[in-house]
Amino acid sequence: MxxxxxxxxxxIELLIGIAILAGLLGxxxxxxxxxxxxxxxxxxxxxxxxGLQTARAEAVRRNTVxxxxxxxxxxxxxxxxxxxxxxxxxxxxxxxxxAAESGTMAKVTVSADAIPVPAPPGYFSALISxxxxxxxxxxxxxxxxxxxxxxxxxFTRADVTSTASSTARRYVVMVGTGGQIRMxxxxxxxxxDPRGCS
Length: 198
What we know:
This protein is an alpha+beta fold and about 200 residues long. It has one helix at about 10-60; strands spanning about 65-70, 80, 95, 105-110, 135-140, 155-160, 170-175, 180-185.
């Protein structure tokens, strides 16, 4: 009976395979880093959107004013949903999100300027300046509309950007006076894509 001779890889073939693998990894690292930045920014924007929707739903459910507050003065994405007037049925803190949950690459800035309806093309292309007022809040009444108290820093728009890269994707979260809440991408046109801003 004849035995087959086993053959393996030579050292040169192994080194060539490792070199090709290293080259592929080197090309993939920048794309992966960009993906991580975009993911953290989108997650932070969705967190703000979800917090606002929770505050609006709780205001309607509890039949009272409920406040959404961006709590971090440095622009990290942390927020609290609670009642400005604490009662037995409406606590000061209904739900919270800590800054540590958002990652280190997302930053939020806010504006209290009224958003034109419809927003003109390119209205959201300019980033809100970094001198925004934080902490800031949005109050919803029992009908789910925005309720503006006589004092306090309110916002109608929140821009979520990356602290690591100026080329990373940016998201805008808008709050209308009727209580409409929407997240959009300012790089897309709303006329051609519903994810766009204007």
